[in-house]
Amino acid sequence: MGFADWRLVIVDVFFRACRKHRKRAKLTAKIINLRFAQLSVFDSNPGSRLLPTKKPTDFPSARTTASGSFSRMIRAFVCLFVVVVPVFAGAQNGMKTIAGTTVDAEGKPVPYVDIAPKWRASMSQGKTRLTVQTPEKNGEGQSDTYGDFSFEMMEAWWEGILAYNDNRTKAGVAVVPRDQAPQDLKLVMHPAAEVSLELVSSSSQHPIQLARTSIFYRPEGSTHYTNILYIAANSPRFRLPPGRYEAEFNAGTMFGRKKVDFEIQPGQTEVDLGVVEIPPVKWADQPDAKAPPLDFSDVRGISLTTDWDSLRGKWVYLNFWAHWCGPCQRKMKDLVPWYLENQRNRGQFEVIFIHSHDAKNFDIVDEKMPGLAEKYWDGAPFPFPMMLDAEGRIAKAYGVRLFPTEILFDPTGKVVTIPDGPNAFEELKEKVK
User: pTM score, two decimals?
Assistant: First the structure.
């Protein structure tokens, strides 16, 4: 019998010993990220088992020995092995466990509520769909039939918790400071108000292709906002519980940022923020505009004297990226083979990758590159010229706020594609043949 099998038997004995305290056993199962039914080797459904299927007869002593002092020893061992150790490890990794109850305004439990630190609102045919959007290391949870919930979340400075019922008509919000991990949090659910607005930039020659809106919640008595909701739409509609909020709008590099504060009162069902004007960025919005200087801290694969005058006459594709950015790496899966196949046309174009301020020198980038190359572009060496933006001057000048950000310039230096508009790489492939 393997170690994993013995561990499963011990867990099963522990849960059977805790049968009078099923709620506690269920919470323990959540902490170790396993469901109660899946932990039992005596489950009659083989498809639900996480480990190799075993029959009760394979463990003749599992039931007969779970008594007296031995049973107490087993329970203590399991608590240490499957509860204390994982929780301690989670704390060491910057995680904390939050537990509490979802209730209505009268304090009655509200069951089956979805809870998460971050949400995404997506729109299709005028309808809004709310789904959980959490980083890989952050968690989500759902309250049970008694309204109880427990899940892990990162120890951010301030982390919001947003909750919705199954049909998204009721919502609740709370904030957990970094130095707290409440185990009796009361998440009050209220009827959700629908918030609507329209984003425009009437003075820009570039239309807004797709604006991103981030919603921040501000708890009562605090000056701190925490991000809880993200939506990509020019006329977003979303639902929120009562509270004070800040909406931050980002329409890409060609436009400035805009912030709007608003408040939802209890009992309010609709909030119309009206038309929100997004200002254009001056350098990109003038007919004779020139791109800001490429004020890099170091370069590789291209001359130290590279500037816009030396690039004149070529299509120039700029890609603002970072070694930690997954979408940036996945983008290279198509870029690398195309770039290598079109070396004969290098006189027509230039591709320049501009690394974020996270890398102060090329040693930092080189340390990450072998793993990235193997994972995302079949182990090939990084073929593109690269600029380091160690001080963040280039990104600031171009208004870059997200990675990856791609911009294509024509041979005269004029902006051809803008972020969130037509794909800059696809446009470059069309121009270089």
Answer: 0.57
